[in-house]
């Protein structure tokens, strides 16, 4: 509210900013929204499925506890991608040095987790939670892949690849849902972690292959939205610019 009061924005349908906003929403924002419904929605559905396929809710706790340990592995690449987002708009590719630093840091964190998780769980948690070490170790690989995918995702967002990202998010959601229906019934909480990791594998694979083909090998410059305002017709059009 303080920012709105300070900036004093003017909301008028006749302004060029309003037309620009509508065009950006139509060609970019809404694409990410529909893709996010699948990708994020299924993630929140997984613990419900874990509880649905089990007699008690103990495995739901194990699943949530495992996620709390592995999710930090995916945060670092996402932060690195966000901090470089502005530079990605003009960059032709992701700088190799940035990629190497993120990969090295994430692998170091994962190795530390794999070697220390048994000791940490036995030190701080009672014996009935010791079994959660297995899904944590399995899920750490999926968390790393998801983090790398977020890192590449920030570059593709800066290049306006919202339509492709929507398709990938839907594919990830379908992969997680189908695999969860099978694996959770067979392996309970561990099956849920495996299903989530499979979705992360699909996400990273699709984004990285697309990035390599279009921006590394194809030398593309991405998509840019150019607003043309016709004073007589009072219309706005979108011109995608890409190689």
* Helix-residue proportion: over 70%
Alpha-carbon Rg, integer: 22 Å
Structural class: mainly alpha
Label the overall shape. Answer: globular
Q: Largest sheet, if any? A: 2 strands, antiparallel
Total number of β-strand segments? 2
Q: Mean pLDDT, nearest integer?
A: 81
Portion of residues in beta strands equals under 5%
Please count the helical segments: 8
**Number of structurally distinct domains:** 1
CA-CA gap between termini? 42 Å
* Poorly predicted runs of 5 or more residues: 227-243
Order of secondary-structure elements:
HHHHHHHHEE
Strand order of the largest sheet: 1-2
Give your account of this protein's structure.
The protein is mainly α. It has one domain (37-237). It contains 8 helices and 2 strands, in the order ααααααααββ. It has helices at 2-7, 16-52, 58-70, 72-83, 85-88, 96-124, 133-158, 162-217, and strands at residues 228-229, 236-237. Strands 1-2 form a two-stranded antiparallel ribbon. A hairpin with a 6-residue loop joins β1 (228-229) and β2. α3 (58-70) packs parallel to α8. The longest helix is centred in the last third of the chain and has 56 residues, at 162-217. It is globular and about 65 Å long. It starts with a helix and ends in a 6-residue tail after the last strand. Mean pLDDT is 81; it is low at 227-243. InterPro entries: Poly_Biosynth_Transport. The chain crosses the membrane at residues 32-55, 61-81, 102-124, 193-211. Its main location: membrane. It is found in: Cell membrane. Keywords: Cell membrane, Membrane, Transmembrane, Transmembrane helix.
């Amino acid at each position: 509210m303080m920012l709105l009061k300070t900036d004093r924005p003017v909301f008028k349908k006749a302004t060029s900013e309003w037309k620009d906003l509508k065009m950006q929403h139509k060609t970019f924002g809404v694409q990410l929204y529909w893709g996010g419904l699948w990708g994020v929605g299924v993630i929140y559905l997984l613990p419900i499925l874990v509880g649905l396929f089990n007699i008690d809710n103990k495995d739901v706790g194990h699943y949530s506890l495992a996620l709390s340990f592995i999710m930090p592995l995916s945060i670092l690449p996402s932060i690195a991608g966000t901090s470089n987002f502005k530079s990605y708009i003009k960059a032709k590719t992701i700088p190799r040095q940035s990629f190497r630093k993120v990969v090295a840091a994430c692998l170091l964190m994962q190795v530390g987790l794999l070697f220390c998780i048994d000791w940490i769980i036995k030190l701080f948690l009672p014996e009935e939670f010791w079994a959660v070490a297995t899904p944590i170790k399995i899920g750490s690989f999926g968390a790393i892949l998801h983090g790398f995918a977020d890192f590449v995702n920030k570059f593709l967002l800066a290049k306006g690849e919202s339509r492709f990202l929507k398709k990938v998010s839907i594919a990830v959601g379908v992969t997680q849902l189908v695999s969860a229906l099978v694996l959770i019934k067979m392996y309970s909480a561990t099956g849920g972690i495996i299903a989530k990791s499979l979705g992360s594998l699909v996400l990273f694979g699709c984004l990285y292959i697309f990035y390599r083909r279009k921006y590394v090998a194809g030398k593309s410059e991405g998509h840019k939205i150019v607003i043309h305002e016709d004073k007589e017709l009072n219309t706005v059009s979108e011109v995608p610019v890409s190689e």
